[in-house]
Fold each of these.
Amino acid sequence: MSQTMLAHRDAASAKRDFRREMLRHFVAGQDALQQLRTKYPETFEAVVQRKAEQEHFLTTKSMLSTGAAIEVVQETLKETKTRYTDEVPGITTHTAEVLVHEAVADWLIRCPLDFIEKAKS
């Protein structure tokens, strides 16, 4: 198998793995959101509000970023987790982590972001 074909296969495999993990995060997060909605409606509302606030600027952020797509995703994960843990009373670190990954998975499922690729030197 040629190097080009192997690299393409590896890239395709990595994309499939990423997609599968994002779907798992989405499902786990939806489960956590349902639990919050049922048991802690005020916490649920706070999470939904923070998620909507982050999403409001995410599309523009992805278009303006000159970094790699993964950098934007990582930064968004970090920012969203900080918002959840700092601004949503009573949320555990684990639940915040689950919900952050759900949020990013949800955004990628509904609206694949438009990352401008850097020109290679």
Note: The chain has one domain: 3-110.
Amino acid sequence: MKNEISKWCALIMGLLLGAVVVFAQGQGATGVKVNPQTMQKKAQSPPPKNATETSSVGNNVKMATPAGSVSWAEQLDVDGDGQVDQATLAWDAKDKVLFSNTSGSFTCNNGAPGSGELLIAVNGAGNPRNRPAGSGFWVATLDKGQCGAQTNSMWGCKFDASGNSTACGIAQLDQANEDLVIVTMQPGS
């Protein structure tokens, strides 16, 4: 009896280990490589004097901003890939959130090149939603087959104040709360 239980335990452990290996191999396969560090630093600085009033940021990936928000253009490496991008930045002074919007090429998690629109949001210090300063999200438009996407979709990740992804997957924007909702969760992206 003990021998039979040991065999079953070994079989179950083997299946669990196999599942962990398959899960680990699948991590990071879908999505875009984004390091929000530049935008986290930028969220600590006030907008420039030449910023103009705006009510939104983005085109296909568009976030509405409340009255009193300002926008400006800068050349920054917004996604941390080492390439400078032409970015439209918007500061929501009411909710203390910095947004960045770019369109162009990026690197997929699987190493392939991709292109589309990328929106990054970083919560500033003292924001009224009490989100950790430096935390936020990013979301990109992906065509089917691009960066491992199974369908045309918006793909995004939430990240903590250190820039580490906390949840990733097919996403949609929550306009009312200036947040990202992960619709279909994906492991470790």
Note: Residues 2-26 form the longest helix (25 residues).
Amino acid sequence: MNRILSITLLAVAFAVSPVRAQLKINLDSLTAKAKESVDVSLDGSLLQVAGKFLSADKSDDAKAKELISKLKGIYVRSFEFEKEGQYSQSDLDPIRAQLQAPGWSRIINVREKDEGAEIHLKTEGGRAAGLAIIAFEPRELTVVYIVGPIDLSQLSGLEGHFGIPAVSVPAPKKKATK
């Protein structure tokens, strides 16, 4: 699943500009059910403060520092559950309803059995203006919302920072020939 999400993110190259209307991610009801949860809510001013803790000498930190200097916000909600069935797709309905509003488009939808990923893009005036990612597995759920100008081909520079998971991309499996 993570391989598909990584490949998808790296394949899409848009520039995202500031979003006027904030996407509301309210998944508080899942916190008590999860064995582990992450809640990152960094607006522009907090991102600038956080950016000061990144080293310009380390290449990964330098990439992240450059990217966040332009961002207006990073919001991540991630949950890991003890067993399957502790959340349902209906928990995501309020978020998906917002993503149906004018200007939002689902640009990627990947499903494999009981896991999947969706990437939604907000456009304003013909320009990309927001990015929302929903990734789910039977015992894991992550929603990421990034606000501000970002080139998605550079998005990997944020992996491992601010609650955004680091994702390795293994080589694709070859199909067996008959």
Note: Strands lie at 36-43, 73-80, 104-112, 115-124, 127-137, 140-147.
Amino acid sequence: MVNCQNGEMMLQRLDADQCVFLIIDLQERVLPVQFESDRVASNIARFIRGANYFKIPVFIIEQNPDKLGNTPSLVVEQAKEPIYIEKNTISCLKNNEFLELLTGMGRKQLILSGSETQICVQKTALDAMDAGYEVFVLGDGVTSRTEKNIDMGLNRVAQAGGVIESTEGALFEFVLKSDDADFKQVLKIIK
């Protein structure tokens, strides 16, 4: 599907050279009350291994970590050189430090994960699209307190023009052929 945004045509295809991966507010003190949070953290860790391989910058963004805790070590340990941002804004794009770093990278595709899907992930996605970024959300890499909130947040992003993708689907989008090193590496990551 081709989407038109800010007068520009978007092919909605991931390009590793244009991507940035965001882990939004996946924090230890909140995870126990969130839907299937262990599976979500595992999928995010898996995607980080792929991001490392394809040289995609990884942002770990935390909302008031003194109160909500930090990102779980299972996730953090996977990132080679994560960029940490502490925020108190709902949308990551309303955080000046994040926005300056992102703008400086010159990349135009954001892959989002984390929590709460219908709050911080959704607002970040909507603000990013308004700013001209192509937005992809890992549907199996987001969580909320209820499954319904996850579905509603993903639907809202999709209605606005974002792409909902699976962890495996996103990783394989970076692969061209089934007989090259990229294919073999992605297979290792998803197993």
Note: The domain at 16-190 is CATH 3.40.50.850 (Rossmann fold).
